[in-house]
Amino acid sequence: MTDSPKPWDAPQVRKWLERRIAAARLDQAAADRGGYEARDDYDKAAAEEWACRAVTGADWTDEQATLAARLKELIGQDDYPVTGIHDDLRFERHVRTYLRKLAKMTKANDGFDKTLRHQ
């Protein structure tokens, strides 16, 4: 007997994205208090928030294929406009890394049930 793949749970994905946005904001605030030494942590958290916000709007999360297509489109972008970061190149690298992580999670339909702040 084989296990069928679990169905796409759009509300769970949206909940996971919202929680990651909240966690990224908390991480940015902590990094901001960390000063000069925590600039990379700030850019990393800002990249996570940007990536999650880019797929939260509209109806991107309703279907697995739609979210995967949106992530592929975002990964192919040349730049990711945002203000208030410390290093544009480092931020863009972190955004692409996080988008690839989301794409892998979407393809496997796995990991969206982990809603704790630290992953």
UniProtKB/TrEMBL annotation:
Domain of life: Bacteria
Protein known as: Uncharacterized protein
